[in-house]
Amino acid sequence: MLIGPQNLPFRLHAIRERIAHAALAAGRDPAGITMIAVGKTQPADMLRAAAMAGVTDFGENYLQEAEEKMNQLTDLPLRWHFIGRVQANKTRSIAARFDWVHGIDRAEIAQRLSAQRSPHLPPINVCIQVALSEEANKGGLAPGELPGAAARIAALPGLRLRGLMCLPPMLADRAAQLAVFGELAHLLRDINARGFDLDVLSMGMSGDFEAAIAAGATHVRIGTALFGERG
Ligand SMILES: *Cc1c(COP(=O)(O)O)cnc(C)c1O
Fold first, then answer.
1. The domain that contains 70 carries what CATH number?
2. Is 206 near ligand 1, meaning CB less than 6 Å away?
3. From CA 186, how far away is CA 99, in angstroms rounded?
4. Is 17 part of a structural domain of the chain?
5. What pLDDT, on a 0 to 100 scale, did the predictor assign at position 231?
6. Which residue of 88, 137, 158, 179 is most buried, as measured by CB atoms within 10 A?
7. What percent of the chain has pLDDT over 90?
């Protein structure tokens, strides 16, 4: 199917239905799940169409591409999530323009983002990216590093530590997906048992968001299922 701004409301509706269905099947309130529309490679017009159809949260992987689109969408009250790998030389711009950073995978990045966040802005919401056992080289901290990292990040004034994020490879069967996402959910409970109060599990993409929701995802990051294949 050809996907353009004109049939985006239909695609969005279908995804919202699937999110609600997955939530209800898990005994969860669909309102507790935020869909982040992942706009990498998509033009600003496509994001505008999504915003007009009610999308409030947008995810971007590449700073320059994101800034170009943000500059065309300044008239809209959108929340921007940086979901790519953060390079140290990009932290100043990311701290200036994003509301969320999902892939915190080293202390240096957290410290830079915090120091460079304007005191006139609310703290950046951040998630620690975790390298789970199923993952091959996708980055992130090892589970054993989490308590120490969480304590250090939670102490940074420019950041608000919200939870954990993972980026597993696309697993074909639902049982394998549930196992991986269940692992992240377990790690969040584990951290909270140590005195933290984290409320975000950023997990699930176009091919596996229903399993992620079953396992407790609060933020799903959806690109191709909404906007179509990336060129
Ligand atoms: C591209 C991307 C997504 C969206 O992937 P789709 O399979 O297109 O839904 C989600 N999260 C991250 C970190 C990504 O880079």
1. 3.20.20.10
2. yes
3. 26
4. no
5. 72
6. 158
7. 90
221 touches ligand 1 (CB under 6 Å): yes
51 lines ligand 1 (CB under 6 A): no
In a domain, 10, yes or no: no
User: What contacts 54, CB < 8 A, 6 or more positions away?
Assistant: 12
Does any domain span residue 89? yes
How far apart are the CA of 81 and the centre of ligand 1, in A? 12
Domain that holds residue 152: 27-225
Atom of ligand 1 nearest to the CA of 206: 9
Please indicate, yes or no, if residue 56 is contained in any of the structural domains: yes
Atom of ligand 1 nearest to the CA of 207: 7
Which 3 state secondary structure label does DSSP give 154? helix
The pLDDT tens digits of the residues spanning 135-190 come to: 655 689 999 999 999 999 999 999 999 999 999 988 989 999 999 999 999 999 99
Report how many domains make up the chain.
1
> What are residue 161's phi and psi, to 5 degrees?
-70, 120
Token reading at 20? 């609600």
- C-alpha 119 to ligand 1 mean position (Å): 31
Distance (angstroms) between ligand 1 centre and the Cα of 37 equals 9
Global pTM? 0.96
